[in-house]
Amino acid sequence: MIKNYLELNKFEVEKIIQFINRNKINKLSFEDIDKEIKSEEFDFGRGVILKIKGQDIIGMASIILKECDKKGIAYIIKLDINESIEDKRTVLCEIIEESKKIAKKYGAREVFLGTKDDTIIRNLNTLNIKKQYSAIRMTLDNITVKYSPLSLVKLSEENKKEYLMIYNDAFKEVPNAATLTESDIDEYIKKADENNCYIAIVNNEMIGFLQFNIKEGVGEFDLGLIKSARGKGYGKLLLETAISFLNSKKVKEIGLIVITKNTLAYDMYKKRGFKESELVSDWFKLD
Length: 287
Hints:
287 residues, alpha+beta, Aminopeptidase, 12 strands, 33% strand, elongated, Acetyltransferase, acyltransferase activity, transferring groups other than amino-acyl groups, Acyl_CoA_acyltransferase, GNAT_dom
């Protein structure tokens, strides 16, 4: 049987806490789990499904539904099947089929599944579902800045509409990119110390954005250019601006996550000297 998270009874809620925490050293509380599952990207819990056998939860998946009506795409993430289950392929197929049904109801024309679980990947391959692209983490050894950085203006209440427009225009055609909402922007502003966001300026024109996350001496960033600013060499200037900013924060490591299908960004990072350091996930298109 497959149930939606919002349909679980009290006993099953206890079981999902056990399931999610079964291999974790730092256990998550129900409040943490519930908050994540009921986020907007999963339509407040409607996009999270559980495979139940007897009295046990043996599998689950979270479906990002936020992009269905905007881009016609749904993303299945956090697909997890209990390692003690013998017939994982059958469980996988059931979860995939139910996920596709939900995605279709929300208007998705395409459904992608992301995972780095070797067992799940092997089973996907037996179903003739092949990898389309990967999300990888890259790090930079040579952090010497090569070009003068661009001017930056920090995200604020006054410019949040401009930031929203720039971000969504920059990522409109980028694989796996989320569409930003006003509530997302408000959350960014609240957490300014954890997630620093800036608008890049050239000749008094807003041409792109930078977003930084610094934790325990490791600095990661994301960047994007509006469509009208592309092909003018601003991409490499924006990249150097990001490196310069993180240098000023004296981080011990500079990194980023890139989708290999986004070949323009991927090639730019490789050319600058970024090297692949970790597989985040492989992505499979489901028919």
